[in-house]
Amino acid sequence: MGLTRWVRQTSEHYLMIDAQDKVAAKLGAPRPLPPRGAEIFWRRIYVPIFHRLPLKLRNAVIARMPGSHQKTWKSQPPSRGPAV
Amino acid sequence: MARRIVVVGGGAAGMGAAGAAKGTDPKAEVIVFTEYEDAAYSPCGIPYVHGREIPSFDSLFMATKQHYVDQGIDIRYETKVASIDVKAKTVTTTDGTVERYDSLVLATGFNYADPELSNSDLGGVYYVKNIREAMEWDKVLDTVKTAVVDEATPLGTEMVTSLAHRGIETHLVDPNPWAMSMATDPDIMEPVQESWIEMGAKLHFNTKVTGLVGDNGKLKEVTTSQGTIKADLVVVATKKVPNVELATAAGLKTGMSGGLIVDGQMRTSVSGVFAAGDCVEIPHGVSNVPIQGLSGSHAYAQGKVAGTNAAGGKREYQPVYVPWGMVAGKWMIGGVSFSETLATALGMPFIVGNAQGISRARYYPDVKPVKVKLLAEPEHGRLIGAQLVGGEGIKERADFLAMAVRTGITIHDLATMENVYSPPIGALNEPIALAAQNALTKFGG
Fold first, then answer.
1. What does pTM read for this prediction?
2. Around Cβ B323, how many Cβ atoms within 10 Å?
3. What is the pLDDT of residue B444?
4. Interface probe, candidates B344, B379, B382, chain A, greatest A C-beta count within 10 A
């Protein structure tokens, strides 16, 4: 597995667990298990740092990672004026 | 000389590509390689045959082999492509046959993520994929008393429902705190999970399958992080990962999700090579983050684009918003784009609107509840996600909401939407409008 894929997969995994914890606490649903071992680093240190970074910076980092999003994708132009 | 188009893979993307290529250039020679005995069937229907909602596997086949012969598409069944030479523009099969191509479409699909089970070579470990194997497993299911479904992915969710419906004692084991947590919120899944329990299923969340215990090669127990479960069968329904081994060996580039990098014309990083379906990654329309492991309808549409362009036509695919829906337990669930959980994970600001509505006039027979949850960005109120759970009308609402997200519709628009009112098919108050009106109270509108 390449580095960027590992970063994406690991980051996504722990961000999702943290989000499950927050949403479950808010909605009164069962929460994930508390972190153990190496999970402590990801959930208690990495996730809070990720969320403190400005959204623009996070988006800029993602934009630089290799992927289909760096290729040309043409969106349909919005319709203008009345249809008839 | 006729253009030669080779397609690797006979699933939705591959057959979509082959048909589109032939339609674009009828003189083209189109060859499809598939390692399986069949092409053009619906693997998505397999859980429903197991669940006895569909009486036979025969109805899952969409076309006969003769149909493709008549169309001039040369399908090489049970033939695996071993390597690709992108400089010579050839593919070589495992039996040593070399075929030249002018354009190549890769539609190699997915593999299940390695479940990392000890003793995984025991009998009774079922990966739902191939229809011929499913036919054999269906006979095995007649003898199964207890089954474990490993992970509540979309397939896992369908299999729990189907096996419980068939009367098999079914245990769902998932490492997350609720089912389908990658796409849903717990308030949406709560009625589904309650209905599974009513159907006799046993749910083990925050639990990981760790291994298998057998006797004489036969599965006896599944070990988990929370204890053991006696079982005759385990259905591995882990996450789909792109099958890109062949492509990467040929030098094609993959992106951060592990899928092949493609552009809007489904062109890969190598000239003359296109790709489609579960082996590629596509940017998400809201976040621009590339994602993979989408639905059969996405794969088919991507295959059409790849096949058209491989044959010299011009067609564009779009970033995806991922409408989804399914039957889960006694309910239908669906949605599009972001759940509250996913938006929270990405640190996206949002407001939520909830509504509990009904599918028909309140007095009409068989009226069903419809719960709608909308997410909108707080600055302009643009819709960024939705989830639904109800008794009917979920798929149509998910499709509509996907177009709403894609076209930038706001909760202001949805709160004042016009809706069909006819007692047998629609209530006076549309649940989507009610949810948008609820969101507006938080928006200050």
1. 0.94
2. 23
3. 67
4. B344
* Pairwise CB contact (< 8 Å): B177 & A31: yes
CA B245/CA B254 separation, integer angstroms: 10
Out of A16, A18, A69, the one facing B283 most closely (by C-beta) is: A69
Give the residue among B134, B144, B105 at the shortest CA–CA distance from B8. B105
**Torsion over CA of B36, B40, B44 and B46, rounded to 10 degrees?**
-60
pLDDT in tens, B337-364: 999 999 999 999 999 999 999 999 999 9
C-alpha dihedral (B297, B300, B304, B310), degrees to nearest 10: 140
Name chain A contacts of B258, Cβ cutoff 8 Å: 1, 5, 9
Cβ separation A29–B177 shorter than 8 A: yes
Q: Do A73 and B318 touch (CB under 8 A)?
A: yes
How do residues B239-251 score in pLDDT, each as one tens digit?
999 999 999 999 9
Nearest to A20 among B177, B190, B348 (CB): B177
ipTM of the complex as predicted: 0.93
Q: Could you read off the pLDDT of B33-91 as tens digits, one per residue?
A: 999 999 878 999 999 999 999 999 999 998 889 999 999 999 999 999 999 999 999 99
Which has the closest alpha carbon to B286: B319, B257, B264? B319
Measured CA to CA, the distance from residue B84 to residue B100 in angstroms comes to 10
Is there a contact between B342 and A55 if contact means CB atoms under 8 Å apart?
Answer: no
What residues in A contact B263, CB-CB < 8 Å? 68, 71-73
Partner-chain contact A73 B178, CB within 8 Å: no
Tens-binned pLDDT, residue by residue, of chain A (84 aa): 688 899 999 999 999 999 999 999 999 999 999 999 999 999 999 999 999 999 899 999 999 999 999 999 987 666 677 777
CB–CB of B340 and A31 under 8 A?
Answer: no
What are the tokens at B263? 């552009």
Helical (H) or strand (E) element with A58: helix A55-64
Chain B residue with CA closest to A49: the answer is B347
pLDDT at A78: 67
What is the distance between the alpha carbons of residues B45 and B55, in angstroms, rounded to a whole number? 11
